[in-house]
């Protein structure tokens, strides 16, 4: 069946798949040990949908919602990312998610928190090939250490299935775990002048 692209908003794009594959590499920057997926049928299955581009059509690994159609992902990164693109691949059935709500830097969200206004809400279209690209708001998602993805609804099925979530963007090391002296030297800030004497003392001791 031909796919209609007559939407009012230009919220997704079709690019060269080979070029996209090189750009969709942020899965490698996810802190998988601390990634959470709420309402997954099989524990740990939510982590499997963040995989290399070339595995996006793999139907052996997927996540399926349990009690209802909702899925909630809490995704911590190993640094700060600038999010530039999202791809959601499922199957061409009513179990495909129909909406995505994004929250920036709100760790450990639960379904009790999703009444909060999202930083962005995106209407999804059925995509079994992993080719529809959705554009996050660049200014809003320019410095993200934690991303929450809430899928509240699908196209009418009892449960939601997702095979692949692709994230495109830029990654930079976070400064949360760095030595304080290194952080101030790498990112000088006039507001930190009161701490400069600590730098001097530390260096004298060395």
UniProtKB/TrEMBL annotation:
InterPro entries with a match to the protein in the record: Galactose-bd-like_sf, PITH1-like, PITH_dom, PITH_dom_sf
Residue stretches making up the PITH domain: 15-187
Full protein name: PITH domain-containing protein
GO biological-process terms attached to the record: positive regulation of megakaryocyte differentiation; regulation of macromolecule metabolic process; regulation of primary metabolic process
Superkingdom of this protein's organism: Eukaryota
Similarity comment text for this entry: Belongs to the PITHD1 family.
One Pfam short name: PITH
GO CC annotation: cytoplasm; nucleus
Xref: PANTHER family: AD039 HT014 THIOREDOXIN FAMILY TRP26, PITH DOMAIN-CONTAINING PROTEIN 1
């Amino acid at each position: 069946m031909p796919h209609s692209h007559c939407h009012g908003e230009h919220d997704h794009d079709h690019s060269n798949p080979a070029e996209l594959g090189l750009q969709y590499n942020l899965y490698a920057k996810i802190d998988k040990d601390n990634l959470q997926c709420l309402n997954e049928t099989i524990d740990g299955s939510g982590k499997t949908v963040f995989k290399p581009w070339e595995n996006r059509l793999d139907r052996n690994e997927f996540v399926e919602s349990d009690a209802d159609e909702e899925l909630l992902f809490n995704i911590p990164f190993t640094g700060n990312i600038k999010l530039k693109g999202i791809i959601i691949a499922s199957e061409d059935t009513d179990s495909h998610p129909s909406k995505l709500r994004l929250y920036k830097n709100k760790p450990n969200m639960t379904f009790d928190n999703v009444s909060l206004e999202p930083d962005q809400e995106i209407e999804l279209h059925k995509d079994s090939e992993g080719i529809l690209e959705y554009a996050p708001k660049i200014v809003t998602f320019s410095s993200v250490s934690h991303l929450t993805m809430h899928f509240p609804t699908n196209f009418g099925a009892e449960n939601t299935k997702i095979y692949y979530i692709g994230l495109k963007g830029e990654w930079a090391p976070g400064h949360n775990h760095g030595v304080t002296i290194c952080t101030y030297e790498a990112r000088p800030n006039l507001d930190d002048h009161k701490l400069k004497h600590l730098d001097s003392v530390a260096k004298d001791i060395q």
